[in-house]
Amino acid sequence: MTDLQQNSKIRALEQKNSVLSDRNTKLIEALRESRNQLDLLRQDLDSMTQPPSTYGTFLSGSSANNTAEVYTGNRRMRLNALDKLDVSSIKPGAMVRISEGAVVVEDCGYQDHGDLALVRETLEDRRRVLVSNTHGEESVLTLAGAITPKVGDTVLIDDKAGYAFEVIPKAEVENLVLEEVPNVEYSDIGGLTKQIEQIHDAVEMPFLHPELFEAYDLRPPKGVLLYGPPGNGKTLIAKAVANSLARKIAASRGVGEEEARRAQAYFLNVKGPELLNKFVGETERQIRLIFDRARDIAEDGRPVIVFFDEMDSIFRTRGSGVSSDMENTVVPQLLAELDGVEGLTNVIVIGATNREEMIDPAILRPGRLDVKIRIERPDADAAREIFSKYLTASLPYDASEVATHGSPESAAAALTDLTVERMYRTSTENEYVNVRYVDGTVDTLHFRDFNSGAMISNIVDRAKKLAIKEVIAGTGDGITGTHLLEAVAEEFSQNEDLPNTSNPDEWARISGRPAGRVLDVTVISHEEN
Questions:
Q1: Strands 431-437 and 518-523, sheet pairing
Q2: How confident is the model over 452-503, as pLDDT tens digits?
Q3: pTM over 0.70
Q4: SS3 for 240?
Q5: What are phi and psi of 154, to 5 degrees?
Q6: Spatial CB neighbours of 521, under 8 Å, sequence gap ≥ 6
Q7: Long-range contacts made by residues 261-264, C-beta under 8 angstroms, separation at least 24?
Q8: What distance in Å separates the CA atoms of residue 305 and residue 396, rounded to the nearest whole number?
Q9: For the segment 54-99, what is each residue's pLDDT rounded down to a tens digit?
Q10: 423 CB neighbour count, 10 Å cutoff
Q11: Residue 83, SS3?
C-alpha cells in the first residue's frame, strides 16, 4: 500500500470518527435532558402525593427543645419544630404551617384577613385590649407585633386564638370628626371683634396661662356656646380659636410655624347630625368614643377642642321629641362626659347653634357650657369690616372707578361705603315685613334686620359674576358700583335667610319681643310699589 492510499484511509477514518463523536455528543445531551425531565416528573409526583399541611397561630416557643405552643383546630397544642426553624424568631400571633406529622415547618407571617372588632379600652399592660365585635360581644385580646391601637380604632382579630393583628384605617370616630387644625385666622373674620375677645378670654387664656389660673384657684370653663342667627361666623370663630391656640402652644414649646400649621389633634369637628343613628344606644356610644379620643389626645398636655356644630340637632330639650325621645338618653350621655367621674383635662367643648332655645337647659347651666357668646347680625360698621375681607385692592375694578377714586384701595373703600349704605338704609325699597303685635303696635322690619356675613359674601360673589359677564361680552373691564347695587337687589329678592312667616314666635324672637306677642306678619310687596 502506497503512502498516498494510507493517508487517504486515515483521513476517511478521522472523518468517520468525527461524525460518530458528534452523534455521541447529541445522544449525551438527549440523555441529560431526559434525565432532567424525569427529575421534574418525579418532583411533581412527590408534591402531588405529599399530605396536606394545616395552619395555626403561634403563641410562644422554646428554643431549648425547639418546641412551639400553637393554636390550631380549635385547641392549643405543643408541637415540635423543624430543626432548621428557629422558633425564637417567630413573632407571637404569626401564622405557622404544620406538617402531617404535627411539626411546625414554616413561619407564614401575620394574617391579612379575618374578623373586625372595635377597641373599647386599652388595658394597663398596653399589650392587651378590650374589644367588641359586630354582635356586641366583648373579649380581651393580645396585640400581635408592634401595633398600638387607640380607643375607637378598628382592628383585625382572631378571636379564638386571642390576637389582634392590624389596625384597620376605619376608626369609627374618624367618620364623625375631623382631626386637624383649620387654616382660619382671626384676621379672616370681620365684624366680630368683641366676640373674638370673649372667646379668647374663655378658651385661650386658661391654656396659655395655667399657672395664673392655678394661683387664683380659678377653674377653666368646660364649654362655650356660640349662638345667634345663621351665617354670621360661629363656625369660623371656632376654627380660628383652634388655629390660634395651636400656633401659640407650638410657639411656647419652640415648634416652628410650619410645624404648628401641620399639627393635628387640636380640633375635633363633630358632624352633629351624623351622630344620629336608628339603633338604640348607638348615638350615646359614639359620643362616648369621641370624648375617649379627646382624653387620649389630651394626655400629653395638648389642648383639644371638641366642636359640635348644629348642636340643637342632637341635644334638644328632653321630652320635646315628636316621633321619638332619643334626647332623653343622648343628653345625659353628654352631661356625664362634661362633669362625670372621668374629668376633662385640657379638653374644652364648643357648641354652635342658631336655635339655642331648643338645647336642653341642663347643658347650658354654669359648670357645663359656662360661657355663652351671642354672634349678632352685623351692623353697618361691622358690615364694612366684613366687606373689606372680600372687596380687596387686588380685585380688578373698572378703570372709571379707579380713575374717580384715585387708586384701587380707594375704589374698594368707596364701593364698600356705597354698598353698605344701600343695604342699611331705611327707605321704602328696603322694607320687608310689617309685624303686628297683640297690643296693637306695628313694627316695620327692613332687610338690614336680616343681613349676615354669609349674605355679604354672596353679594360680592354676585357682583364679581356680573363683572365677568360684561368682560366676556366686551362691555366692561372690572367691578363697578352698579354691579354691587344690582347684586344687593338680587340678594334681597332671593334671600332665604328669613324665618317662616307662618310662625309668629320666630318674628318675636328676631324683633326682641316676648314670644306669644306677635299677632300676624305681613310681607311687603315691592312689585306693587
A1: antiparallel
A2: 888 999 999 999 999 999 999 988 889 999 999 999 988 888 764 555 556 6
A3: no
A4: helix
A5: -100, 130
A6: 433, 434, 435, 436, 501, 504, 507
A7: 261/181, 261/183, 262/181, 263/181, 264/179, 264/180, 264/181
A8: 39
A9: 888 888 888 888 888 888 888 888 988 888 888 888 888 888 888 8
A10: 24
A11: coil
Tell me if 123 sits within 8 A of 129, measured CB to CB: yes
Contacts of 514 (CB under 8 A, 6+ apart): 508
Rounded to whole angstroms, the Cα distance separating 183 from 263 reads 11
| Sequence-ordered strand ranges (E) for 101-193 | 103-107, 115-122, 128-132, 138-143, 154-158, 163-168
Q: How many degrees, rounded to 5, is the angle at CA 303 between CA 299 and CA 305? A: 115
Rounded to whole angstroms, how far apart are CA atoms 60 and 63?
A: 10
Q: Is 349 helix (H, G, I), strand (E, B) or coil?
A: strand
Say which DSSP state 327 is in.
Answer: H
Burial class (CB in 10 A: 0-12, 13-18, 19+), 316: buried
Q: Which three cell numbers stand for residue 184?
A: 382660619
Q: Compute and round to an integer the Cα radius of gyration of the chain.
A: 39
Q: Report which of 156, 157, 145 is spatially closest to residue 92, judged by C-alpha positions.
A: 145
- The C-alpha cell of 15 is what? 472523518
Cell of 369: 357650657
The position carrying cell 405557622 is 96
Whether 241 contacts 461, CB under 8 Å = no
- Contact between residue 53 and residue 100 where contact means Cβ atoms under 8 Å apart: yes
Query: Which three cell numbers mark 11?
Result: 483521513
In the block, cell 338690614 appears at: 448
